[in-house]
Amino acid sequence: MPALISRMRRFGTTIFAEMSALAREHDAINLGQGFPDTDGPSEVLAAAVAGIESGDNQYPPGRGVPELLDAIAAHQEHYYGLRYDPATEILVTVGATEALSASLLALCEPGDEVIAFEPFYDVYDAAITLAGATLVPVRLEAPAFTFDPAALEAAVTERTKVILLNTPHNPTGHVFAPEELRQIADVAVRHDLVVITDEVYEHLTFDGREHAPIATLPGMRERSILISSGGKTFATTGWKVGWVCASPELVTAVTTVKQFLTFVGPAPMQRGIGAGLRLPDARIAEIRDGLQRQRDVLVEALEGTGMHVHVPEGGYFIVADVAPLGVTSAIDFCRELPERVGVTAVPLSVFYRDTTGVETLVRFAFSKRIEVLEKAAGRLAALGTSS
C-alpha cells in the first residue's frame, strides 16, 4: 500500500471482516462481532423519529444538542455523583471511537507513550499510532484478567502521557475492582498523567457488580477524560452517539481536534440517546438483566462443549479456552468453525501485541436474541460430540 503512510501500513483488513465474510459464506450465526440484533427501547427510537419529523435535520451545535448535553450531565450526577457543566465540560462525539481518537490526537505528541491494558480493543492501537505516539501494554493475566501493579508502575517512563482504561473491559469482560482503580489512580496522580476511560459498557455489569468511573476517586476528576456512548446500552450501535466528560481545559482540547474530524453528529440520534439517558433506573436494570440472561445461555452452551469458560463480569463478550477440545490454534479453529458447525467467533490473540499464552483463547459475543443464542447452542453442541 504505497499510498498509505508508513506507520499505518500494519493495519489492514480486520479479523472481524474476515469472520463476517465466512459467516455470510456458510450462513453461520455471527458471534464474532459485538452488536445487538434487536431494536433499542421504544422511547429512544421515538425521540429520534420525532427529531426527524420536526425538521431537526441540519447541523446541531458543535458541542452537541442541548437536550443531550443536559441528559449526560444529569446521568453522571445521578449514577456516580459526578457534576459536569453541560456548557463547558461535556462534548458529544460521533461514537466513542471518535471520542477516543480525538482525545489521543489532542493530548499526544510524536514520541509520547500511552499505557493500555492488554488485550485491548483494536482501535486503541490504531488511534495511538495515528497520533504518532507509542502504545505500551500492561497485561491483564488470565483467568481473572487482572494486572500486576508492579508492571503498571514499571511501564511508566518520562515519556508517558496517558493511561487508557477500559472498564467494563472488551474483550475479556473484566470489571475493574475498586482496588485496581485505586492503584491506577495512584500511578496517575504521582506521575501527573491523564487517564482516558472507555466506559461504553457502564450499565452492562452482571451478578450485582456496579461500574465506578475512576473520575470519582480523589485527585482524578481533573485528570480524567471519561468517554461513553449510547450504542451498547440502548442497542443503537449504528447511531454512533458518544460523549466526553472532563475538565474545561481537557474538553476544549478534544473539541479543537474533533471539530476537524466530523464537525458534528446527527441531531435526531442525539435526541434519541438523550431520551435513553433519562430512562428510569428500572428500565436500565431491565436491559442489563436481559443481557445477563443472554450471557448465561451462551456460557452454558460453551461449557457443554468442554471448553473452559471465563464467565464475564460485564460487557458483550465471553472468552473461552478451546484447548480442552484438542485445539492448539484459536485462529485455525475460528476459521474452520463457520463451515464446521455454522457459528462464527474471533481468536482473542488479535487483541494482543504479545500472543504468548493466549493461542487457544476465543471470544464469543452474546449480544444476540435468546432464540439466536439457543440456535447457536444447538450447533455448538456438535463440538462436544466430535472432540
Automatic annotation (TrEMBL):
Keyword annotations of the record: Aminotransferase, Pyridoxal phosphate, Transferase
A molecular function GO annotation: transaminase activity
CDD domains: AAT_like
Cofactors that this protein relies on: pyridoxal 5'-phosphate
Residue ranges occupied by any Aminotransferase class I/classII large domain in the UniProt entry: 27-380
NCBIfam families: PRK07777.1
Pfam family, one: Aminotran_1_2
Enzyme Commission no: 2.6.1.-
Gene3D superfamilies the record matches: Aspartate Aminotransferase, domain 1 (3.90.1150.10), Type I PLP-dependent aspartate aminotransferase-like (Major domain) (3.40.640.10)
Name listed for the protein in its UniProt record: Pyridoxal phosphate-dependent aminotransferase
Organism from which the protein derives: Gulosibacter sediminis
